[in-house]
Amino acid sequence: MNRLPHRWPLHWQIISALFIGLATGHILGPENRSIPVFGFAGDLFLRALKMVIVPLIASSIITGIAGLGSSKSIGRLFTRTFGWYMLTSLLAILLGLLLVNAFQPGLVDGVPVGEKMGLSELDPVTSAKISGKGANDLANILMRMIPENPVGAAAEGKILPLIVFCLMVGAALNALPEKLSAPQCRFWESLFQVMMKITGWVIKTAPIGIFGLITMVTATNGLEALGPLAKYAAIVLAALLGHVFITLPLLLWFTSRISAVKHYKAMLPALVTAFSTRSSSATLPLTINCVEEEVGVSNRVSSFVLPLGATINMDGTALYECIAALFIAQAYGVVLGPLDQFLVVITALLASIGAAGIPAAGLVMIAIILDTVGLPLEGVGLILAIDPLLDMCRTSVNVLSDSCGAAVVAVKEGETGLYKN
Description:
It is a single chain. By secondary structure, the chain is mainly α. The chain has helices at residues 10-28, 35-51, 53-66, 75-103, 124-131, 138-144, 150-155, 159-175, 178-204, 206-221, 227-256, 260-277, 280-295, 299-312, 315-332, 338-353, 361-373, 387-412, and strands at 107-108, 111-112. Strands 1-2 form a two-stranded antiparallel ribbon. The longest helix is centred in the middle third of the chain and has 30 residues, at 227-256. It is globular. The termini are far apart.
């Protein structure tokens, strides 16, 4: 009996769907009556993506924070690790914010590209509500981070207050005796695994959804509608490269006198694996091996820092989320003021903590940020086609930052003899 051929990797399925959708849309043209069918397939995918957001983010954050451990002996180790991760994520987000504001990929000759790429025009009330914030709204923004009713916030899709509440729940479980916290931890871990499974099913339908979306956009607006994606992708890649070759090397040297060249060379096998698998979690065993065998970090540090990093440290994902959110806002013709962009930065930072280390998890996080600033989820459709390639790149950056954190913490903990191999 002949064996069935191995399934294509998902990223190749998505890339193939992109090109097939381009060809199909070009052949059909705008007058074909079947175009709404393709749009329907894309809309179904987006609705399924939105369906998993609340339970996935809640279970992911609570499980991750509750699993950190509350022993006082690891307090110093946790403080240094968490501080590194928050610093690098924040710097990555700010770099993305700088480039997306400087080059504005969502505009062509000053005109928003949303209509050309098939987005529905925002109604004036929604547009004014998004871009009309002033300085007096800062207190309201901070106030909304604390939900009066966490269940109501979840039901209404108010993600930012839900994230804050889940962080508090995870911290509280950490502070309770194991006898009291264990049942809750088992529940949230079980729910997280269930949502990971459902999210995996949804992501597997991405080729169909992308095929439908790209076919509709191409048939309606022509191939030139996808031109702005190249500029958007170039800005994301430029920001990722800037973080890898400027931000992280400077931090490594000035905090611990570590040579980025030596570190990157030691981590090359893990980075290649992260690029191909698009999963920091799947790469974790190899990351630990490289950090311990090639860098020389002790198991005490690596076994704490790296699993924690795979859970809460997503430099590349946070940077990408920020650029994608502002690109979508620009495409809609919405001007996000300083306070709106501050909200994007804070949400990207918090959302990156809860991002699952699986392929395409960033798409779920993007939906969270769009919801926070009031933009339609439909905007995710703009970036689906190019996401697989960018996902490979940002996953490698995520893993690299994790490993840098392990090396820095090892130096701060007094370990010597690093990079002797």
